[in-house]
DNA sequence: CTATAAACGATAATTTTTTTCCTTAAATAA
DNA sequence: TTATTTAAGGAAAAAAATTATCGTTTATAG
């Protein structure tokens, strides 16, 4: 995802293309998932006098517009990611790393709808465990 | 879940049995899922000069001890519930109601482990949608 | 029944998030 | 391209949420 595409996405949502916003999205593009503090640090590196409020306001408005998504994690601070197809999150309880894996939630959805009568719109799935690297380290 | 059982559970975890704690657990038993404000209101009804800090401290220590569980929901404040077998949460986007449904997460877990190499310990699944009652109301 | 350690309530402190307000910069139209 | 407008930025204050402190009270082990 290059700068021009990000800019286009912003414009499509009637959001101005600012350096701070570009940096936020680029950082998420690079690291996948970042919490508010990490994002602030990232943007600050490029724009030292960015305000934390700016980061807050931007993730809020970009989330409202569906460009970003907030992922609430058990035990830790929420992270943000660039919105893409629905997927599932793996969260390493040792190192905190977060990974996306694609997964078809259709079965879950069908089951839930059948059992409950709800009309399901979206699903949030976070699996907590130990990543391969941390498993290896633990064995040493 | 009656008072005596709650008391036993608390004692098993070396937590003193106080009226405030009993009320918290009883409220969760009655309503299923409550956020911090609702819990505070509930306890306050029975014990008008309970401190909000007491509610915070108690849900924290009971959560640490595995008696309660915190459920993080997209878009809204986290709620607490009494810990039981792993299950799935349905959250109505209209009325905010939360429902538990039982669901075997084994397939998801197996898939995730196979694809990622993670060793999965737990899963958090929240489905967002419209409950039957709100679907009916919407049609009127 | 007493001693002790945990929990309580009140409050302060901290942390997190949102709002305000004035200035600056991006977008739109001339 | 320049001028106008409107959104966004930064700094700071305010608000909201959570945690810590401390003297007092209460549950429980002995």
Textual characterization of the structure:
The structure is a homodimer of 140-residue chains. Chain A has helices spanning 3-12, 19-31, 36-46, 52-64, 106-116, 132-139, and strands at 34-35, 68-73, 76-82, 88-92, 98-101, 119-130. The radius of gyration of chain A is 17 Å and the shape is globular. In chain A, helix 2 (19-31) packs across helix 3 (36-46). Chain A has six helices and six strands, in the order ααβααββββαβα. The first copy, chain A, is α+β, with helices and mostly antiparallel strands and 140 residues long. In chain A, the strands form two sheets. The first copy, chain A, has a three-stranded antiparallel β-sheet with strand order 1-3-2. Chain A has two domains: 1-84, Arc Repressor Mutant, subunit A (Orthogonal Bundle), CATH 1.10.10; 85-140, Dna Ligase, domain 1 (2-Layer Sandwich). In chain A, a hairpin with a 5-residue loop joins strand 4 and strand 5. Helix content of chain A is 47%, strand content 26%. The A-B interface holds A 70, 72-74, 88, 90, 92-93, 99, 101, 103, 107-109, 111-113, 115-132, 135 and B 70, 72-74, 88, 90, 92-93, 99, 101, 103, 107-109, 111-113, 115-132, 135. Chain A binds a DNA duplex (30 and 30 nucleotides) through residues 11, 14-18, 20-21, 36, 49-54, 56-58, 60-61.
Separation of termini of chain A? Answer: 39 Å
CATH class term of the largest domain in chain A: Mainly Alpha
**DSSP helix fraction of chain A:** 40-55%
- Count of separate DSSP helical elements of chain A: 6
The CATH superfamily of the largest domain in chain A is known as: Winged helix-like DNA-binding domain superfamily/Winged helix DNA-binding domain
Largest sheet of chain A: 3 strands, antiparallel
Oligomer: homodimer
Low-confidence stretches of chain A: none
Under the CATH scheme, the architecture of the largest domain in chain A is: Orthogonal Bundle
Task: List how many beta strands of chain A DSSP finds.
Answer: 6
Total discrete domains of chain A: 2
Q: Tell me the overall shape of chain A.
A: globular
Mean pLDDT of chain A: 96
What is the fold named in CATH at topology level of the largest domain in chain A? Answer: Arc Repressor Mutant, subunit A
The radius of gyration computed from the alpha-carbon positions of chain A, rounded to a whole number of angstroms, is 17 Å
Determine the most extensive contact between two protein chains.
A-B, 36 and 36 residues
Main sheet strand line-up of chain A? 1-3-2
Structural class, from helix and strand content of chain A? alpha+beta
What is the N-to-C succession of helices and strands of chain A?
HHEHHEEEEHEH
């Amino acid at each position: 995802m290059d700068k021009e595409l990000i800019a286009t996405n912003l414009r499509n949502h009637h959001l101005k293309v600012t350096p701070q916003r570009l940096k936020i999205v680029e950082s998420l593009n690079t690291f996948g998932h970042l919490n508010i503090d990490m994002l602030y640090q990232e943007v600050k590196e490029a724009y030292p006098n960015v305000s934390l409020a700016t980061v807050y306001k931007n993730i809020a408005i970009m989330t409202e517009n569906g460009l970003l998504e907030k992922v609430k994690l058990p035990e830790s601070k929420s992270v943000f990611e660039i919105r893409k197809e629905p997927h599932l999150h793996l969260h390493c309880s040792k190192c905190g790393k977060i990974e996306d894996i694609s997964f078809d939630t259709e079965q879950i959805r069908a089951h839930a709808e059948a059992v409950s009568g709800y009309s399901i719109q979206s699903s949030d799935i976070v699996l907590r465990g130990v990543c391969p690297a941390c498993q290896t380290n633990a064995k040493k």
